[in-house]
Automatic annotation (TrEMBL):
GO cellular component terms listed in the entry, alphabetical order: endoplasmic reticulum membrane
Protein's recorded name: 3-oxo-5-alpha-steroid 4-dehydrogenase 2
Transmembrane segment boundaries: 7-28, 83-103, 109-134, 146-165, 203-226
Family: Belongs to the steroid 5-alpha reductase family.
Upper lineage: Eukaryota, Metazoa, Chordata, Craniata, Vertebrata
Species: Asarcornis scutulata
Length: 256
């Protein structure tokens, strides 16, 4: 049966941190070519409908921890704090896999990006699940620790912002529409990337609640991955819409 290998978690976490820096270097100046940043003259031939693409990409992040838990003998998580942390991770990806894709109205997704996104979800799903299910050691009263409670509040706040912002973005388009409009309401009043801000807050909350190297590496990766995208969205809006609110920031309210 599977067991915890002490050196594996730091090695995989370090690799995730390195991938974060690579992602940042690749897309800090030039946005990833999908959605509103896709170059119309050189669209990739292989594309999948957005709903199907999101389902395929996000599924491993839910499925891999579930399989790791099923393979554990005995199949349980102790203590309660560890069980709750694993549930938070799976809860996010249950939403991203089984709920979000069926409401999205995004454009077809390039297969190349889908392939790398799916690989990442397999990798990260294994790292987070393996650590929590096989390696993590928490005191019995971890769910009353200030790190757990504050991290949990941040996670829930971030997830709420993320889901609400996604809802506002969906409402901008009628079924069949592909044009882009200025997001309004919620945190979009202050930032162009409200949905991205919510997800970054969510995973840093998870990292604080987990207080682990894998979770902090994932939060750092999230920041390096979607932080630049929020910046490029902001530039796109300013360039495309002459009436775009000049007071809005790219990602962090009142700062950036």
């Amino acid at each position: 049966s599977m067991h915890c290998l002490p050196g594996l978690v730091p090695a995989l976490s370090s690799l995730l941190g390195a991938l974060a820096l690579l992602q940042l270097s690749l897309y800090l100046r030039v946005p990833s070519r999908y959605g509103k940043h896709e170059e119309r003259l050189c669209r990739p031939r292989g594309r999948l409908p957005a709903r199907c693409a999101w389902f395929v990409q996000e599924l491993p992040s839910f499925l891999v921890p579930a399989l790791l838990l099923a393979l554990r003998s005995p199949p349980r998580l102790e203590p309660l704090g560890c069980r709750l942390l694993c549930c938070l991770f799976c809860w996010h990806y249950f939403y991203r896999t089984f709920i979000y894709p069926f409401f999205t109205r995004g454009r077809p997704f390039p297969l190349q990006l889908l392939f790398f996104g799916t690989l990442f979800c397999i990798y990260n799903g294994f790292l987070q699940g393996y650590y929590l299910i096989y390696c993590a050691e928490y005191p019995n009263d971890w769910c009353t620790d200030i790190r757990f409670t504050s991290g949990l509040l941040l996670f829930l706040l971030g997830m709420g912002i993320n889901i609400h912002s996604d809802l506002l973005l969906r409402q901008l388009r009628k079924p069949g529409e592909v044009t882009y409009k200025i997001p309004q309401g919620g945190l979009f009043t202050y930032v162009s990337g409200a949905n991205y801000f919510g997800e970054i807050v969510e995973w840093f909350g998870f990292a604080i609640a987990t207080w682990s190297l894998p979770a902090f590496a994932f939060a750092f990766f999230t920041l390096c991955c979607i932080g630049p995208r929020a910046y490029h969205h902001h530039r796109y809006y300013l360039k495309t819409f002459t009436d775009y609110p000049k007071s809005r920031k790219a990602l962090i309210p009142f700062v950036f």
